[in-house]
Amino acid sequence: MDLVGSQEVKKVVNSVLDVIRRQIVEGEITEIDAPQIIKMIKEKCESEQRPSLQSVINGTGVVLHTNLGRSLLSPEIKEYLNRIMFSYSNLEYDLQAKKRGLRYHHVEKILRELTGAEDVLVVNNNAAAVMLVLDTLVPNKEVIVSRGELVEIGGSFRVPEIITKGGGSLHEVGTTNKTHLKDYQDAINENTGAILKVHTSNYRIVGFTEKPDPVELQKLAHAAGVPMINDLGSGLFIDLSKYGLPKEPLIQEAVATSDLVTFSGDKLLGGPQAGIIAGKRSLIEKIKHNQLLRALRVDKMTLAALEATLLLYRNPAQAARKIPTLRMITMSFDELKERANDLAAKLESIPGLSVQMGSGESQVGGGSFPGYRIPTALVYLTLPTSCSPTKFEQLLRTGEPPIVARLEHDQLIFDVRTLQGGDVTKIYHRISSLMK
Ligand SMILES: *Cc1c(COP(=O)(O)O)cnc(C)c1O
């Protein structure tokens, strides 16, 4: 109760008394139970004090669940973050030179090493990175984009609008399924500002398709004296095809064939929300002088989490194990089955529940690996007929801790891929207390 001020307590007391008065008027209660009223006041004070942002158990199997916060940071970096968050740091101070330093400096070395780029810059998110790049390099110029790559990302971020917002104009080329090098070539004129390639990260065009070799496209851009910009969206450093996933473009590959590459810190990279721009030093230098950068700059929490996550990539095998996003995507079916067994065994011990195990498919989510499903292990719960599945799902979702699961054909389904350490026990306790 210490955390709540007296004005707040007064408000809570009045609201609880209002409820009781109404209940008396409506004949719902006939006696005043003082200890019960005090308990209600206490509980209300506590619940008002609880932050709105809560930790949630993700039983959906969607790894990069945008609604549930996308990437989880690696527990490996916890201690380091704790140290940086709660103390002064050399954020903008060069300790060696005893003079002002740059916040961007901290992630430069590791990012250059991992991407192979001459220079890098980190901003608030990838949407900001794309906007900043276009705003700096192509105001009042034409940006050439293939019709197959006019992407809309969630939250109304659309490539055509972003280009015009930056003061540029869109020059569409090719068709939805096929765009040739010649289409780009024919579009180049004295007002061309850049060629923009956008990774179709959240959809796939399959069948009769074609797009030019990125090396050729970059050559074309250079012959025209304009930069080749590549919005990758998701930042993948490790080839996941060795884990059976489809081949997705790697950051290193994109950097080798583009002048500037932009990608997110919290999609496949598995770090905090951030936007990373990697590429030619001369272009990044221009971007660093854009006034907008100040508005899009990242906080020390982001920089600390990003640097620590990136350092895990020094050892790629370690990164696949220690970065939760990569670990969940590459988890073996045997491990998933073992986890499902564990959850099913616990839930079976609850009277009245019927539990089955099965296999199904998880999605990576977050607009990556579109259309691709990873085989996974599921636990199906069938409730007693006296229990409404819809109501049960709602109670699970709105309780403490909130548990988000799938509800299909009156069965609750847990995809164990996205469960974290300790979640199995928490799910068991919540469900057994709901069944009482
Ligand atoms: C996700 C994505 C973005 C936006 O990135 P945020 O980090 O969510 O701002 C931009 N472009 C592409 C191609 C994307 O996939």
From TrEMBL:
Its main location: cytoplasm. It catalyses: L-seryl-tRNA(Sec) + selenophosphate + H(+) = L-selenocysteinyl-tRNA(Sec) + phosphate. It comes from Limosilactobacillus oris F0423. Converts seryl-tRNA(Sec) to selenocysteinyl-tRNA(Sec) required for selenoprotein biosynthesis. The gene is selA. Its EC number is 2.9.1.1. One of its GO terms (molecular function) is transferase activity. It is found in: Cytoplasm. It comes from the Bacteria. Its cofactor is pyridoxal 5'-phosphate. Pathway: Aminoacyl-tRNA biosynthesis; selenocysteinyl-tRNA(Sec) biosynthesis; selenocysteinyl-tRNA(Sec) from L-seryl-tRNA(Sec) (bacterial route): step 1/1. This is L-seryl-tRNA(Sec) selenium transferase. Pfam families: SelA. It is an enzyme of class 2 (transferase). InterPro entries: PyrdxlP-dep_Trfase, PyrdxlP-dep_Trfase_major, SelA-like, SelA_trans. Belongs to the SelA family. Keywords: Cytoplasm, Protein biosynthesis, Pyridoxal phosphate, Selenium, Transferase. The modification N6-(pyridoxal phosphate)lysine is found at K267. SUPFAM superfamilies: PLP-dependent transferases.
